[in-house]
Amino acid sequence: MVGRKRHLDDGGFAQKSKKTKLSLEKTHKGDSVPSTSAMTLEETDFPRGGGSTLTPLEVKTIRAEAVREADQELFASAKQAQVKRKQRKADVKGKATEVEVDKKDVIRIEHLNYKRLIPGMKVLGQVMSIQPLAIVVSLPNQLLAHVPITQITSQLTERLESTNDVEDGELDDDKSGSSTQVPDLTNLFYVGQYVRAVVISAHAPGTTDVAGLGRVRDDAIKASRRVELSLFPEKVNTGVRKVDLRAGYSLSAAVQSVEDHGYILDLGVSGISGFLSFGEAHKGEGSRLQVGALIDVSVIKMSSNGRMCTLTNDPDVLVPSSISEVTNVSSVLPGSLVQSLITAVTPDGLILQILGFFDATADEFHLPNTHKSLKVGQKVKTRVLYDLPGTTPPRFVVTLAEHHIRLQPKSTFEDQLLYVAYPVGAVLDLVKVRRVEAERGLLVEIQPNQEGFVHISHVSDEHIPTLSVSSGPWRVNTFHKARVIGYYPFDGILQLSLRSSVLEQKFLQAGEVQVGEILKGMVKQLTDSALFVSISGNVDGVIWPTHYADIPLKHPSKKFKVGGSIKCRVLTVDPEQNRIVLTAKKTLLDTTFPMLTSFSDAKVGLLTQAVIFRVTDKYLVVEFFNNVKAVVPVREASETGAKLTDVYAPGKVIKVRIISVDAEAQRIVASIRQATSSFTSSATDISGILIGDVVEGVVTQMHKLNLVLSLKPSDVRALISFSGLARHWNATVPELKTSVKPGAPIASLVVVSRNPEKGFVIVTGHSKIDRLKKTSLSMDNVTIGQIVGGRVTKYTRYGAHVKLTTRISGSLHPTDVSDDYEAGNPFPAVDSILRAAVVGIDESSNRLSLSTRASRLSSNGTKQPVDREINSIDDLKVGDAVRGFIKSVAEHGVFVMLGRGIDARVQIKELFDAYIKDWKGRFVVNQLVRGRILNVDTASKKVEMTFRSGDLTRAPPNSVTLSDLREGQKVVGRVKRIEQYGIFIEIEGSKISGLCHKSQISDNKDADVTIALRMFCEGDRVRAFIISRDLEKKQLSLGLKPSYFTGDEDEVGSNHEHPQDGELGAANHVKTHDALDESGPDEEYSHDSCSEEKELVRVGDSDGYDDDDEDVAPSDPIHSLKPRGLKIDGFQWFVNDTGPNEVSQLQSESSDQSDSEENVAERKRRKRRKEIEMDVTADMQTKLPDSNADFERMLLGSPNSSYLWIQYMSFQLQLSEIDKARVIGKRAIQTIHFREEQEKLNVWIALLNLENAYGTDFTIEVVFKDAVRHNDSKTIHLRLAAIFDESKKHEKAEEQYRRTCKKFGQSSKVWTLFCEHYLRRGLVDDARKLLSRSLQSLEKRKHLKTISKFAQLEYKLGDAERGRTIFEGIVDSHPKRWDMWSVYMDMEAGEGDIQHLRNLFNHVFAIKMTSHKAKAFFKKWLDLERKLGDEEGATVVKQKAIEWTQTAVEAA
Predict the structure, then answer these.
(1) Residue 1068 exposure: Cα atoms within 13 Å on the Cβ side
(2) What angle do CA 1078, 1082, 1088 make, to 5 degrees?
(3) What's the DSSP call for residue 710?
(4) What span, in angstroms and rounded, lies between the C-alpha atoms of 582 and 536?
């Protein structure tokens, strides 16, 4: 079929069809030109291949002419309209037909309503409210809709589904914390945000909750239930093609994943994804985007392959982004900014043309403030709101409002948002009616450029069917009093009401009610849990039962009648949830005490009333107004010491006094005891007195050691010791006791300590620090050695922080506190006053280094310091015995503070003379320690220290060089790295590394050296033989073959005391091939990978501290482990039935024999050295692991073997290492590959058995929940029940079976196993009751299978006769279920009754069946006759088979 040339016609240019130059020649005057847009999808004669017969130049020419013709006709129509008004009436009548034709082509400006919102319609909206499970969206023309949380993005929905999957795996009663997994919509959206949406469904008015809106009182949220929207990019962006994604095109996108440099976005366009870099995403704000978040983006550029486009969400780029052309009508999305041409101006709005193709309208609600100046032919920027469905050609509705163009919420001239400038409930005295819509309502003007809308239902309390424009009380230009009842955020107008009932209401929302206000309301409803009171209009309050009266009411219905009035006081107001809590307690209604409504109102000493909120044994929690709470300690609750729960009850009104307010912790402490009238307060507010203040007072009391003063004029109590006052007055203590009397004044005292709780301070004589403040201290006059005074404020990493003046502070290092660290306090108390000498000045930070050593403070210096002062690293010498304080405990040792800025490191090997496994527990920060200097490096300012006793001589680092070694020499080294081709060994006492090729490990040529390599791990100490060395290349070749060490037994044995010169380092404690079990159990193994076998082994030195030069003391050999089997069904940890008691007994016996083991330790080490000749590489595959190291090596080769992991756990249990067994089980689950589900299940079952045997109910419940989440839930439930059953915990097993049946009641297996459990325990009646219960829960198709299982259990564990009865019923009702017949026969065969079997076979052969099935039954019968019957019976069976065959042939 040949395609015809298309006429380029588009109804979007004008209302009349156009004829271009190219089409005039082919079109007669009377021919009608189709008005369907060329952009619609209904085109039928489009040329093949998607091309066009017109050239690009022709298309461009046609478009330009069409625009010119449209402009000419539009202006001509306007002139004709003016001429027509001047024509005579007769002329107008004469042209009535022509006018009617013109009216048909005029575009009508229509408003959006709920009837026009049809599924599939795309619309621009604005977020009005964010609910927990939905967002409420404001639409154009005062409409509302909602978006459920499941309709935001598909990625967010997947997150919700994954959360539900986790919850489904948990137990029914374990629901805590599940709500915290739901993403918070407030983190994804904000009020005022514009969103592109598509309509999913529209419901009739009054529809019940269809989304996550719940039961609400807000009318706006209720109205939003009618329309459900979706924000899915794949739905909103339907019809957008790749070619549309040019620079400046804006659309919605969902965050699909977070990558290293940005976000991958789902655009909803097939074949393309978006990329948003972190730099673009976080320009406006620093918060990271969540997966599933919905954002508006603008295209920056497209990648060369067309699969990825770069995007930005920068508002400065996104808002002005506009489109100039599209490929089809569906590419015009709501929210797109387009260039528009005004084609007509009407009283109802504007008619425009967008993108040069499509007609568009803008109603009066969406015009700019300067809309009166708009003229026909003017080009303006507009933003698409929605497309009108069912219009041909397609037509859109656009907006020219400033806040829509800027994509910002509507604000007033004062830049205030609407809800701030006009809160709900505000009364507007004069609003002017600007427009009347007869059936909708009134459009009023509140102030210039601020409008409001009064729905027809809110014009009057009476029913108004229609409104008049020119008459009636609500005609145009009339003024009225109105009240704000809501907002239409999208249109930027207020929702008003003129109804007198609304104007007279006291409150319209909860936010208008003041806390503590007394209200009169009407009882609306009384329930068992609360009393609901109607306050004003639709504003209600609630009274909880504890606030019905001062005493608990047993029958509140007698006091409160529905419809009756009630007087109450407002307790709390929650504007967000529109909730008001009231109280009807008469004590609170008539109270004269001040009301505590906020934390800022709480002042110490305030006396007020509160209600007991909670009662515990140690304290009371009382509640004031507006959810302000306080704690009353038990000592402040009663003076009698009675139990609080016996004296106080929740809901009781009590009088309390505020005694403490902690602003940082938002904590208030109150007292009931101090609120009584008989109480004389001893605690005074001392907040006005600070440490360091100079005060004076009068003696009120005299004690044995102290004086009690009353400070003037605050009357605060103060204490001063007699000795302190004696120094102040330069007198003796006996003289003071005789001369000082109560009432004596004492001046020039300094506050040194405060006790706010008890309300007193401690003072001392001013003379103590008088001389310290004779001169003003400043950084200009301070000198080294000067004595200063200050107060300790806090502790830092440098020591105590001392405040000297308001601008100068000091630091007191722990080593500068005292000349004797044991006698002094290296960490003085906070708020203590001290004298110190200046030993350092830092002018840049206004900080001084201080010292309180007596040798610094006293000039004579008669006494020699016990701990000398170390000022620099030069003061330290090797061998010096010094003391210091632990600064920190690291992984490889501890660091000790020796002086200001001088720290020493103590490696692990230098901590103790003997091996200590848990060495970290022996040290704490700031602990005083003693040691000796081992090494001082003045260049790098590093000090090595040791706590060990004995000789300090250590082998100097790197003392051995490559030239010192010779071929054939035997050395001791440590495995540094393991590769596929060999082992790198570092020689002890040096930094020289050599390579032992895998061919030099074993003498057995047939041995698998790969397994031999696995037997080694990094850090193992080995003896090696130097095969060759290359001084030029600095390479060393080593060997580990046992033949290299033949005849070395005596030599090795003597090396313990006298190492020979031919070997470097100590030869004892060397790990050989057969002693690889000496590694610690907590040692981790990691082998660096390398692909180059010819890697050079260089000799190099390393600067600084080396983490690998610490000694690892060996552990005692562990007894060999006997072979064990992996028994998952009927799990046992020990095959030889060694339970926990036996293990603990073995452990105690081991501790008793520890002394004897130490005596023979040396002989064991010598014996191991003699076994170095043995080549164990040949039997490595058959050797059973007998140590932690062995297990770790085997697991390196088989990490997915649950058998090995469970053997490892069993090995730890035999050593009573329960916690380590748990850790190994968790390691196994994390290590085993996720595809090895059965292996993981085996480990989970092992963990359940472990907790069942050694754990508690809590630990087994925790492991059980984890296992349920990671495995098949039903399998784990049944396995736990079986574990309880096997361990004779029948009650727990029964409870577990009940939980399993409740959760998996649709499973036949669960009910069958539960029945078996009862029958094994002998509970026959309970077991039989399960059958009827199971049939109620199971599907009908499973009934026969379940009944059969129960009958089989009766045969095996119950009554065979009952089982026979059940099977008879089955075969009677289902005679052709041959499988049931077969099972029935097997059960009878188990009973051994051949006669009953013969009857069964005779019965079954009476039923019609196929020859194939008959052959099987005859064969089965013959076998049973030979096993249970006799030869005669077998002969009878053969005869019957022949007869059945003949009968079947004859019948055929």
Answers:
(1) 16
(2) 90
(3) E
(4) 14
